[in-house]
Design goal:
The chain is an alpha+beta fold. The protein has helices spanning 20-23, 27-41; strands at 2-5, 11-14. It has one domain (2-41). The chain has a two-stranded antiparallel ribbon. The two termini are 22 Å apart.
Amino acid sequence: MTYYDTSAGAKVFAAGAFSIACSVWQGHVRELVTNLWDWMAKD
């Protein structure tokens, strides 16, 4: 799993595994993804 900001201001997240999509509705994964999207949406 990785996250970085580009010099152009883009926020990039890569899960590093395709299986996260299958698990996104599980409690702990859902919380992680929700927190990630909320944080990335901030300026």
